[in-house]
Amino acid sequence: MLTYIFLIILVVSLANKTTDGNKNIFILGGQSNMSGRGGVVNNIFDGFIPPECQSNSSILRLTKGLTWEEAKEPIHQDIDFYAICGIGPGMSFANFVLKNDPNIGVIGLVPCAVGATNISQWSQGSIFYNQMLNRTRVALQGDGMLRALLWYQGETDTLNDDAKLYKLRLYKFFTDVRNDLNTPSLPIIQVALASKFGPYTEEIRQVQLETQLQNVKTVDANGLKVGPDFVHLSTPSEVQLGQMLANAFLGFGSAHNLL
Ligand SMILES: *[C@@H]1O[C@H](CO)[C@@H](O)[C@H](O)[C@H]1NC(C)=O
Ligand SMILES: *[C@@H]1O[C@H](CO)[C@@H](O)[C@H](O)[C@H]1NC(C)=O
Ligand SMILES: *[C@@H]1O[C@H](CO)[C@@H](O)[C@H](O)[C@H]1NC(C)=O
Ligand SMILES: *[C@@H]1O[C@H](CO)[C@@H](O)[C@H](O)[C@H]1NC(C)=O
Protein backbone atom coordinates (compact mmCIF):
# COMPACT_ATOMS: atom_id res chain seq x y z
CA MET A 1 0.00 0.00 0.00
CA LEU A 2 2.73 2.41 1.01
CA THR A 3 4.68 1.53 -2.11
CA TYR A 4 1.58 2.17 -4.16
CA ILE A 5 1.08 5.62 -2.64
CA PHE A 6 4.74 6.40 -3.14
CA LEU A 7 4.52 5.45 -6.81
CA ILE A 8 1.51 7.71 -7.31
CA ILE A 9 3.37 10.59 -5.70
CA LEU A 10 6.40 9.90 -7.88
CA VAL A 11 4.35 9.75 -11.08
CA VAL A 12 2.44 12.92 -10.22
CA SER A 13 5.61 14.82 -9.39
CA LEU A 14 7.31 13.67 -12.59
CA ALA A 15 4.24 14.65 -14.59
CA ASN A 16 4.23 18.07 -12.98
CA LYS A 17 7.83 18.55 -13.90
CA THR A 18 7.11 18.20 -17.57
CA THR A 19 3.90 20.16 -17.92
CA ASP A 20 3.19 23.86 -18.27
CA GLY A 21 4.55 26.31 -15.81
CA ASN A 22 8.07 25.01 -16.10
CA LYS A 23 10.78 26.77 -17.94
CA ASN A 24 13.22 24.29 -19.44
CA ILE A 25 16.60 25.94 -19.32
CA PHE A 26 19.28 25.23 -21.91
CA ILE A 27 22.74 26.79 -21.79
CA LEU A 28 24.38 27.49 -25.14
CA GLY A 29 28.14 27.80 -24.89
CA GLY A 30 31.27 27.69 -27.00
CA GLN A 31 32.50 29.75 -29.92
CA SER A 32 31.22 31.19 -33.19
CA ASN A 33 29.46 28.15 -34.63
CA MET A 34 27.29 28.01 -31.49
CA SER A 35 26.82 31.75 -31.45
CA GLY A 36 25.82 31.57 -35.12
CA ARG A 37 27.23 33.00 -38.33
CA GLY A 38 24.81 31.38 -40.75
CA GLY A 39 23.76 33.93 -43.35
CA VAL A 40 26.53 36.38 -42.51
CA VAL A 41 28.35 37.49 -45.64
CA ASN A 42 30.93 40.28 -45.64
CA ASN A 43 29.97 41.12 -42.08
CA ILE A 44 26.29 41.57 -42.90
CA PHE A 45 23.56 39.20 -41.78
CA ASP A 46 21.28 38.56 -44.75
CA GLY A 47 18.27 38.47 -42.43
CA PHE A 48 16.97 35.17 -43.72
CA ILE A 49 15.36 33.15 -40.95
CA PRO A 50 14.41 29.64 -42.09
CA PRO A 51 11.06 28.18 -40.95
CA GLU A 52 12.88 25.87 -38.49
CA CYS A 53 14.30 28.91 -36.67
CA GLN A 54 11.17 31.06 -36.40
CA SER A 55 10.15 32.60 -33.12
CA ASN A 56 7.54 30.88 -31.00
CA SER A 57 5.82 32.17 -27.88
CA SER A 58 7.07 29.04 -26.07
CA ILE A 59 10.72 29.80 -26.82
CA LEU A 60 12.30 32.49 -24.67
CA ARG A 61 15.77 33.92 -24.52
CA LEU A 62 17.65 35.44 -21.59
CA THR A 63 18.93 38.81 -22.76
CA LYS A 64 22.27 40.34 -21.82
CA GLY A 65 20.29 42.48 -19.37
CA LEU A 66 19.04 39.27 -17.70
CA THR A 67 15.41 39.62 -18.72
CA TRP A 68 13.32 37.11 -20.66
CA GLU A 69 12.00 37.90 -24.11
CA GLU A 70 10.56 35.88 -26.96
CA ALA A 71 13.63 34.56 -28.75
CA LYS A 72 14.35 35.89 -32.21
CA GLU A 73 17.36 35.28 -34.43
CA PRO A 74 20.17 36.15 -34.13
CA ILE A 75 19.85 35.05 -30.50
CA HIS A 76 23.50 35.71 -29.56
CA GLN A 77 23.82 39.25 -30.86
CA ASP A 78 23.91 41.01 -27.49
CA ILE A 79 26.21 38.38 -25.96
CA ASP A 80 28.72 37.88 -28.80
CA PHE A 81 28.53 41.58 -29.52
CA TYR A 82 31.92 42.10 -31.15
CA ALA A 83 30.81 39.97 -34.08
CA ILE A 84 27.96 40.13 -36.54
CA CYS A 85 25.79 37.19 -35.57
CA GLY A 86 23.53 35.16 -37.79
CA ILE A 87 21.81 31.81 -37.56
CA GLY A 88 23.15 29.34 -35.00
CA PRO A 89 21.78 25.98 -33.87
CA GLY A 90 19.77 27.29 -30.89
CA MET A 91 16.42 28.16 -32.46
CA SER A 92 16.39 25.08 -34.64
CA PHE A 93 17.15 23.02 -31.53
CA ALA A 94 14.35 24.65 -29.54
CA ASN A 95 11.73 24.38 -32.28
CA PHE A 96 12.59 20.73 -32.87
CA VAL A 97 12.40 19.85 -29.17
CA LEU A 98 9.06 21.65 -28.91
CA LYS A 99 7.69 19.85 -31.94
CA ASN A 100 8.73 16.44 -30.67
CA ASP A 101 7.87 16.98 -27.01
CA PRO A 102 4.83 19.27 -27.12
CA ASN A 103 4.22 18.88 -23.36
CA ILE A 104 7.66 20.10 -22.38
CA GLY A 105 6.39 23.60 -21.58
CA VAL A 106 8.41 26.73 -22.16
CA ILE A 107 11.96 26.57 -23.46
CA GLY A 108 14.35 29.12 -22.01
CA LEU A 109 17.55 29.58 -23.98
CA VAL A 110 20.57 31.08 -22.25
CA PRO A 111 22.98 32.21 -25.00
CA CYS A 112 26.58 32.42 -23.72
CA ALA A 113 28.81 31.55 -26.70
CA VAL A 114 31.57 33.92 -27.79
CA GLY A 115 33.47 33.68 -31.07
CA ALA A 116 37.15 32.64 -31.20
CA THR A 117 37.38 31.68 -27.53
CA ASN A 118 39.72 28.88 -26.49
CA ILE A 119 38.94 26.35 -23.79
CA SER A 120 41.16 28.10 -21.24
CA GLN A 121 39.03 31.20 -21.54
CA TRP A 122 36.12 29.11 -20.24
CA SER A 123 37.94 27.70 -17.24
CA GLN A 124 36.40 28.01 -13.80
CA GLY A 125 36.61 31.60 -12.55
CA SER A 126 37.18 33.15 -15.98
CA ILE A 127 35.00 35.97 -17.27
CA PHE A 128 33.06 33.80 -19.70
CA TYR A 129 32.64 31.03 -17.16
CA ASN A 130 31.35 33.43 -14.55
CA GLN A 131 29.04 35.10 -17.02
CA MET A 132 27.65 31.74 -18.09
CA LEU A 133 27.03 30.62 -14.52
CA ASN A 134 25.55 33.94 -13.50
CA ARG A 135 23.18 33.93 -16.43
CA THR A 136 22.19 30.36 -15.75
CA ARG A 137 21.50 31.04 -12.08
CA VAL A 138 19.29 33.97 -13.01
CA ALA A 139 17.54 31.81 -15.60
CA LEU A 140 16.81 29.19 -12.96
CA GLN A 141 15.09 31.59 -10.62
CA GLY A 142 11.38 30.93 -10.22
CA ASP A 143 10.18 28.02 -12.30
CA GLY A 144 13.41 27.30 -14.17
CA MET A 145 14.71 23.76 -14.48
CA LEU A 146 18.13 23.13 -15.97
CA ARG A 147 17.89 20.56 -18.77
CA ALA A 148 21.18 20.59 -20.68
CA LEU A 149 24.34 22.36 -21.70
CA LEU A 150 24.86 22.57 -25.46
CA TRP A 151 28.54 23.07 -26.22
CA TYR A 152 30.32 23.74 -29.52
CA GLN A 153 33.92 24.80 -29.12
CA GLY A 154 37.44 23.71 -29.96
CA GLU A 155 38.43 25.31 -33.24
CA THR A 156 40.69 27.86 -31.55
CA ASP A 157 42.44 25.06 -29.67
CA THR A 158 43.36 23.27 -32.89
CA LEU A 159 45.82 26.03 -33.68
CA ASN A 160 48.64 25.20 -31.29
CA ASP A 161 50.18 22.24 -29.55
CA ASP A 162 48.39 23.12 -26.35
CA ALA A 163 45.86 20.75 -27.89
CA LYS A 164 47.51 18.05 -25.78
CA LEU A 165 45.91 19.59 -22.74
CA TYR A 166 42.46 19.77 -24.29
CA LYS A 167 41.13 16.60 -22.72
CA LEU A 168 42.10 17.70 -19.23
CA ARG A 169 40.65 21.15 -19.74
CA LEU A 170 37.41 19.96 -21.31
CA TYR A 171 36.74 17.35 -18.62
CA LYS A 172 37.49 19.87 -15.91
CA PHE A 173 35.22 22.44 -17.52
CA PHE A 174 32.26 20.04 -17.76
CA THR A 175 32.81 18.83 -14.21
CA ASP A 176 33.17 22.33 -12.78
CA VAL A 177 29.99 23.54 -14.49
CA ARG A 178 28.05 20.59 -13.14
CA ASN A 179 29.41 20.99 -9.63
CA ASP A 180 28.98 24.75 -9.49
CA LEU A 181 25.37 24.46 -10.67
CA ASN A 182 24.67 21.58 -8.29
CA THR A 183 23.62 19.30 -11.13
CA PRO A 184 26.27 16.56 -11.07
CA SER A 185 24.67 14.58 -13.88
CA LEU A 186 23.55 17.49 -16.04
CA PRO A 187 23.12 16.30 -19.65
CA ILE A 188 25.79 17.81 -21.87
CA ILE A 189 25.62 17.63 -25.63
CA GLN A 190 28.77 18.73 -27.40
CA VAL A 191 29.65 18.98 -31.06
CA ALA A 192 32.72 17.32 -32.50
CA LEU A 193 34.21 19.79 -34.93
CA ALA A 194 35.49 18.96 -38.34
CA SER A 195 37.65 21.94 -39.12
CA LYS A 196 40.19 21.84 -41.88
CA PHE A 197 42.25 24.69 -40.45
CA GLY A 198 44.19 23.98 -37.30
CA PRO A 199 47.00 21.41 -37.42
CA TYR A 200 45.69 19.80 -34.24
CA THR A 201 42.11 19.24 -35.37
CA GLU A 202 42.35 15.46 -35.13
CA GLU A 203 43.57 15.65 -31.52
CA ILE A 204 40.67 17.89 -30.48
CA ARG A 205 38.14 15.90 -32.44
CA GLN A 206 39.37 12.67 -30.86
CA VAL A 207 38.89 14.07 -27.37
CA GLN A 208 35.36 15.18 -28.25
CA LEU A 209 34.35 11.92 -29.88
CA GLU A 210 35.80 9.82 -27.07
CA THR A 211 34.63 11.88 -24.10
CA GLN A 212 33.85 9.42 -21.36
CA LEU A 213 31.88 11.34 -18.84
CA GLN A 214 28.47 10.16 -17.76
CA ASN A 215 25.57 11.90 -19.57
CA VAL A 216 27.78 13.55 -22.15
CA LYS A 217 26.75 12.99 -25.75
CA THR A 218 28.67 14.09 -28.81
CA VAL A 219 27.16 14.84 -32.19
CA ASP A 220 29.51 15.02 -35.15
CA ALA A 221 29.70 18.13 -37.34
CA ASN A 222 31.69 16.17 -39.90
CA GLY A 223 29.87 16.49 -43.21
CA LEU A 224 28.06 19.71 -42.36
CA LYS A 225 28.76 22.42 -44.91
CA VAL A 226 30.40 25.71 -44.14
CA GLY A 227 29.13 28.93 -45.70
CA PRO A 228 30.76 31.28 -48.23
CA ASP A 229 33.30 32.45 -45.61
CA PHE A 230 34.67 28.85 -45.44
CA VAL A 231 34.93 29.25 -41.67
CA HIS A 232 31.42 28.93 -40.30
CA LEU A 233 28.49 26.61 -40.71
CA SER A 234 25.95 27.79 -43.26
CA THR A 235 22.34 28.45 -42.30
CA PRO A 236 21.10 25.03 -43.55
CA SER A 237 23.93 23.34 -41.64
CA GLU A 238 23.07 25.19 -38.45
CA VAL A 239 19.44 24.11 -38.87
CA GLN A 240 20.57 20.52 -39.27
CA LEU A 241 22.94 20.76 -36.32
CA GLY A 242 20.14 22.12 -34.13
CA GLN A 243 18.05 19.08 -34.99
CA MET A 244 20.96 16.74 -34.27
CA LEU A 245 21.38 18.35 -30.86
CA ALA A 246 17.64 18.07 -30.26
CA ASN A 247 17.61 14.39 -31.16
CA ALA A 248 20.49 13.78 -28.78
CA PHE A 249 18.64 15.63 -26.04
CA LEU A 250 15.36 13.81 -26.67
CA GLY A 251 17.38 10.58 -26.60
CA PHE A 252 18.16 11.14 -22.93
CA GLY A 253 14.51 10.17 -22.44
CA SER A 254 12.80 10.48 -19.11
CA ALA A 255 16.08 10.04 -17.24
CA HIS A 256 16.62 13.79 -17.47
CA ASN A 257 13.52 14.31 -15.33
CA LEU A 258 15.29 12.75 -12.39
CA LEU A 259 17.99 15.39 -12.02
C1 LIG B 1 5.00 26.97 -31.65
O1 LIG B 1 5.41 25.62 -31.66
C2 LIG B 1 4.37 24.68 -31.53
C3 LIG B 1 5.01 23.32 -31.46
O2 LIG B 1 5.87 23.10 -32.54
C4 LIG B 1 3.44 24.82 -32.71
O3 LIG B 1 2.36 23.92 -32.57
C5 LIG B 1 2.94 26.25 -32.80
O4 LIG B 1 2.17 26.39 -33.97
C6 LIG B 1 4.08 27.21 -32.84
N1 LIG B 1 3.61 28.56 -32.80
C7 LIG B 1 3.97 29.45 -33.69
C8 LIG B 1 3.40 30.82 -33.51
O5 LIG B 1 4.76 29.18 -34.60
C1 LIG C 1 43.61 31.46 -24.90
O1 LIG C 1 43.23 32.78 -25.22
C2 LIG C 1 43.75 33.76 -24.35
C3 LIG C 1 43.15 35.09 -24.74
O2 LIG C 1 43.33 35.33 -26.10
C4 LIG C 1 45.27 33.75 -24.43
O3 LIG C 1 45.82 34.69 -23.51
C5 LIG C 1 45.77 32.35 -24.08
O4 LIG C 1 47.16 32.29 -24.28
C6 LIG C 1 45.11 31.32 -24.95
N1 LIG C 1 45.51 30.01 -24.49
C7 LIG C 1 45.85 29.06 -25.33
C8 LIG C 1 46.24 27.79 -24.69
O5 LIG C 1 45.83 29.20 -26.52
C1 LIG D 1 27.47 37.40 -10.91
O1 LIG D 1 26.62 37.23 -9.81
C2 LIG D 1 27.17 37.70 -8.61
C3 LIG D 1 26.23 37.33 -7.49
O2 LIG D 1 24.89 37.51 -7.87
C4 LIG D 1 27.39 39.20 -8.72
O3 LIG D 1 27.96 39.68 -7.53
C5 LIG D 1 28.31 39.49 -9.89
O4 LIG D 1 28.42 40.86 -10.09
C6 LIG D 1 27.80 38.85 -11.15
N1 LIG D 1 28.80 38.98 -12.18
C7 LIG D 1 28.49 39.30 -13.40
C8 LIG D 1 29.62 39.34 -14.39
O5 LIG D 1 27.36 39.54 -13.77
C1 LIG E 1 32.68 25.65 -37.62
O1 LIG E 1 32.32 24.30 -37.80
C2 LIG E 1 32.84 23.71 -38.98
C3 LIG E 1 32.35 22.30 -39.03
O2 LIG E 1 32.78 21.60 -37.90
C4 LIG E 1 34.36 23.78 -38.98
O3 LIG E 1 34.85 23.33 -40.22
C5 LIG E 1 34.84 25.20 -38.74
O4 LIG E 1 36.22 25.19 -38.57
C6 LIG E 1 34.19 25.77 -37.49
N1 LIG E 1 34.59 27.14 -37.36
C7 LIG E 1 34.91 27.68 -36.20
C8 LIG E 1 35.38 29.08 -36.24
O5 LIG E 1 34.83 27.08 -35.14
Structural account:
The chain is α/β, with parallel strands linked by helices and 259 residues long. It has a single domain, classed as 3-Layer(aba) Sandwich (Rossmann fold). It contains 7 helices and 9 strands; from the N terminus they run αβαββββαβαβαβαβα. The strands form 2 sheets. It has a 7-stranded mixed beta sheet, with helices on both faces. Strand 7, helix 5 and strand 8 form a beta-alpha-beta unit. Helix 3 (90-100) crosses helix 7. Mean pLDDT is 92; it is low at 5-20. The chain binds 2-acetamido-2-deoxy-beta-D-glucopyranose (4 copies). Residues 130-131, 134 line the site of one 2-acetamido-2-deoxy-beta-D-glucopyranose.
Secondary-structure map:
Layout: H1 2-18, E1 23-30, H2 32-35, E2 40-41, E3 44-45, E4 59-62, E5 68-70, H3 90-100, E6 106-111, H4 127-140, E7 144-152, H5 166-180, E8 188-192, H6 201-209, E9 216-220, H7 235-250
Parallel strand pairs: 1-6, 1-7, 4-6, 7-8, 8-9
Antiparallel strand pairs: 2-3, 4-5
Helix pairs in contact: 3-7
The structure holds 2-acetamido-2-deoxy-beta-D-glucopyranose (NAG) (4 copies).
One 2-acetamido-2-deoxy-beta-D-glucopyranose binds at residues 118, 120-121, 160, 162.
The gist of it:
The chain contains seven helices and nine strands; from the N terminus they run αβαββββαβαβαβαβα.
Category from helices, strands and their pairing: alpha/beta
User: Largest sheet, if any?
Assistant: 7 strands, mixed
- Please identify which CATH superfamily we are dealing with: SGNH hydrolase
**What is the N-to-C succession of helices and strands?**
HEHEEEEHEHEHEHEH
The CATH class name reads Alpha Beta
- Report the average pLDDT across residues: 92
Judging by the overall fold, what is the CATH architecture?
3-Layer(aba) Sandwich
Assembly state (oligomeric): single chain
Report helical residue fraction. 25-40%
End-to-end separation in angstroms reads 27 Å
Bound molecules: 2-acetamido-2-deoxy-beta-D-glucopyranose
Q: Indicate the proportion of strand residues.
A: 15-25%
Number-wise, the strands total 9
Organism: Solanum verrucosum
InterPro entries: Carb_Esterase_6 (IPR052940), SASA (IPR005181), SGNH_hydro_sf (IPR036514)
Keywords: Hydrolase, Signal
GO molecular function: hydrolase activity
